[in-house]
Amino acid sequence: MSSFARFTGRTALVTGAGSGLGRAVALAFAAEGARVAVAGRRAAALDETVALIEAAGGTARAFTADVARAEDMRLLVRDTVTAFGGLDVAVNNAGVFLGGHSAADFPLEDWQTLLDINVTGVLHALQAEIAHMRGHGGGAIVNIGSNLGAHVRVPGLFGYQVSKAAVSAVTRAAALDHIADGIRINAVSPGAAESTMSLLPGETEAEREVRMKEQSPLGRISSAAEVAAAVLYLASDAAGSAVGTDLVIDGGVSA
After folding, report:
1. Count of domains in the chain?
2. pTM (2 decimals)?
3. Strand ranges of the sheet holding 11-15, from the earlier edge strand across to the other edge
4. What is the CATH number of the domain that holds 232?
């Protein structure tokens, strides 16, 4: 466990924690003293995240849940509180990436999937988390958006960009609604980062590295640790006046 333990004695819930940025965020919270509820649809992947946290001396439990189901989110919060005695921080990271089509040709099935998971899934999570937090002294919530959508747009990613722009809007509107409840709601919007989501179809990590030297002013992708650090900052007491912030971590792509 890190000597820099901002979250000792606190419970953090992370959705989509079975891989990628969600796993990195869960590990980072545990390293700073939090008890971590890791949630997602694939039990085996969640168990791997828990094992990594426990091997590093942290505390975690895995809970299978689908953000597209409101009842799953209610049960997830209930089970987290039962397991750890409370809920202080939530990170709504679960999401899917579907692209390759223009607005005119976007498949309605893909559109519905993006809305169900990336937008309505965030709402389901928020509602369950807020229902607990506003009756128990407040808390901090961080939604994971994207630089694609509200901050920068590229052709061929219509549905994904709309869904992530909605996460930005949901974050800001909910933040204003619930700051009086003692709940701070913010977002982190990564660009291309250290996860499989940032790989183009058939692209290797080495090929992505070459591509990002051209596409990013920074000349590289963001590390998972850099994105996790932004999430932990917004969830920490140091960000006490950050309300409705959408913190972009993309190496200057949207600057």
Report:
1. 1
2. 0.96
3. 59-64, 35-40, 11-15, 89-92, 139-144, 183-190, 246-249
4. 3.40.50.720
Closest to 144 (Cα-Cα) out of 97, 102, 109: 97
Q: How far apart are CA 201 and CA 197, in angstroms?
A: 10
For the stretch 53-87, pLDDT in tens is: 999 999 999 999 999 999 999 999 999 999 999 99
d(CA 128, CA 195): 27
- Taking residues 237-247, report their average pLDDT: 98
- Stretch (H or E) spanning 35: strand 35-40
C-alpha–C-alpha distance, residues 137 and 183, integer Å? 8
Token duo for residue 248: 């972009």
Structure confidence by residue, pLDDT tens digits, 178-213: 999 999 999 999 999 988 888 888 899 999 999 999
* Residue 112, domain member (yes or no): yes
Q: Provide the residue type at 201 as one letter.
A: P
Local structure of 143: helix, strand or coil: strand
The catalytic residues are 160
